[in-house]
Each structure stands twice: as structure tokens, then as C-alpha cells.
Write a structure and sequence with these properties.
alpha+beta, 3 domains, single chain, SH3 type barrels, Immunoglobulin-like, 285 residues, four-stranded antiparallel β-sheet
């Protein structure tokens, strides 16, 4: 309670006591009323003379320390990430396939792509070449992959077209030159055979073991290694045949470079008899 209010209450208390005292002493009501009016006037003058009450002090506002001002952080709007669909062309093979320095068996063997591997295609081959340029499966640049047993995923239409390197000139160096006198016979013989995938490794073509097409075969006169008499490629079933071969001894050589056949023989010496067909097979195992 303020001092001013305390003084006013004290004055009214004095007036009340004076009135009671006057009743007790037998003072007349007029005298009592005059005394009360006098005291009331004095209280009024005292109240007017008293200085006005000062307003209560304001509570200081607590300010945060420098650097700790509250900052309203707006809730960020969710960002929807769009995942781009990859269209990098990749290639895998169903049969282990060699990878060369150019699009053909005459180029140097650089690497091989085996079943279960998948690599990126970097360039297309010009029209007429059944090859693509890929990253080497074992690292170290690029090489040309034959597409006979390949499966491609992705779009290759936007890839650049590669320029094949100059064709190498094959050099055949026989170990010796055989001089053979061929005695003509009325009925020449035939050399035939097959190059196939020997899955179970028993050196016999069983059911489900398909032949390899487009494999180059050379026939040379005399025992191996001899070449130069004739040659050709296997058909779609992996078969080959050379008719009109005079009776005698010959060397049949197969170029397995387009495929991977680490344990298969590459040449066989056979004997052709007049009027008969001599069969020779090359299992890839």
C-alpha cells in the first residue's frame, strides 16, 4: 500500500476516534460535527499537497546474449529427387568370346569376355561388321568384341561409330615345306567335321552341345603343321566339308580365336582314302 493511502486511512481513524470521544465526554453533536469537518479538511489539504505517486518501476526485459537471438527457421519444402533412367549400353555373352585389337580374327588378341561378365559398350562398328568396341573386361583400354554370342542391353544408336584399324597382313610360316607327289585316283575322298561346344568334356558331341558357326578351317597337304591346300568356314551348325580331296595325308587346322577353348587341339593329321569321307571333329572344352 502507498504512503499516501496510509496517511488518508490514519486521518479517518483519528476522526472516528474523535467522534467516539465526544460521545463519551458528552459533547454536543454540533461540536462533534465541526471537529470532523475540520479534520476532513486537513486530510484533503494533506492529500493535495502530497506528491503524486510514482508509477511502479517497469520490469526490465531480459535480452538474449549477443549471438543467441532466436531465429525462426522455416520448414523446408520437401524436395522430390528424380532418378534418371540409365541407358548405358552393356553387353554379355553366352559363350566365352575373345576380344581383339580390330574387328576380325586377323587382329591381335587383347582380352576375352567370359560368361557371367558384363561390360560397357563404348562405340559401334561400321555397317557390315558384327562387332562392337567395349571396355576391356580386365582393364586397360578398349577392344573389339564379336557379337555372335552376345546379348546387348541399352540403346547403342547414339554411340559414335568406330573406325576399324588397318587390316593386318597374316603371315603363315610353315615349319617345313613338304614335297608330295599326288597320284590321281578315280574317286577322290571328302574331309568333313564339326567344331562344337563340348560342355561335359568327353570329346563326343552329345545332345545339347551345339556347333560354333563362322570358324575358319585350313587344310594342308601332308602331316601337321601344313596349310595352304584349301580352307573355309563352318556353317550355322558348326559343320564343315571339303570334297574332291585326293587320297593321302592331310593336316586340318582350326582357328578357335573367336571363342575361348583353352584345352582344345588346333590341328589334326588325318588320312583320306579314295571314295570315302574322313571325319574330324574339334571339341571346345
Amino acid at each position: 500500500m502507498s504512503l499516501r493511502k496510509q496517511k488518508m486511512l490514519a486521518g479517518w481513524a483519528v476522526l472516528l476516534l474523535a467522534a467516539l470521544a465526544c460521545n463519551i465526554t458528552g459533547e454536543s453533536p454540533e461540536a462533534v460535527e465541526a471537529a470532523i469537518q475540520t479534520l476532513s479538511a486537513q486530510q484533503t489539504l494533506t492529500a493535495q499537497a502530497a506528491p503524486p505517486e510514482a508509477p511502479p518501476p517497469e520490469q526490465p526485459q531480459v535480452q538474449p546474449p549477443p549471438g543467441e537471438e532466436a531465429t525462426l527457421t522455416p520448414s523446408p519444402s520437401p524436395t522430390i529427387a528424380l532418378s534418371a533412367t540409365t541407358s548405358i549400353p552393356m553387353v554379355s555373352v553366352s559363350v566365352n568370346t575373345n576380344c581383339r585389337s580390330g574387328p576380325g580374327v586377323g587382329y591381335a588378341l587383347l582380352d576375352s569376355l567370359v560368361v557371367g561378365q558384363q561390360v560397357q559398350i563404348t562405340q559401334r562398328a561400321p555397317q557390315g561388321f558384327n562387332y562392337v568396341l567395349i571396355n576391356r573386361p580386365n582393364g586397360g583400354g578398349e577392344c573389339w568384341l564379336w557379337l555372335q554370342y552376345a546379348t546387348i542391353t541399352g540403346d547403342t544408336s547414339n554411340l559414335p561409330v568406330a573406325t576399324p584399324p588397318p587390316s593386318p597382313t597374316p603371315t603363315f610360316t610353315p615349319t617345313f615345306t613338304a614335297t608330295v607327289t599326288i597320284t590321281p585316283t578315280p574317286a577322290p575322298g571328302t574331309i568333313s567335321g564339326i567344331v562344337y561346344d563340348d560342355i561335359n568334356g568327353n570329346n563326343t558331341q552329345d545332345g545339347g552341345e551345339s556347333g560354333f558357326p563362322a570358324i575358319t578351317i585350313f587344310v594342308g597337304q601332308g602331316a601337321c603343321a601344313s596349310i595352304g591346300l584349301t580352307g573355309g568356314t563352318t556353317n550355322i551348325n558348326g559343320q564343315f566339308s571339303f570334297p574332291d580331296i585326293p587320297a593321302g595325308e592331310y593336316c586340318v587346322t582350326v582357328d578357335l580365336s573367336p571363342i575361348v577353348c583353352p584345352t582344345s587341339p588346333l590341328e589334326k593329321t588325318i588320312t583320306v582314302t579314295a571314295g570315302n569321307t574322313t571325319n574330324v571333329s574339334f571339341p571346345c572344352n
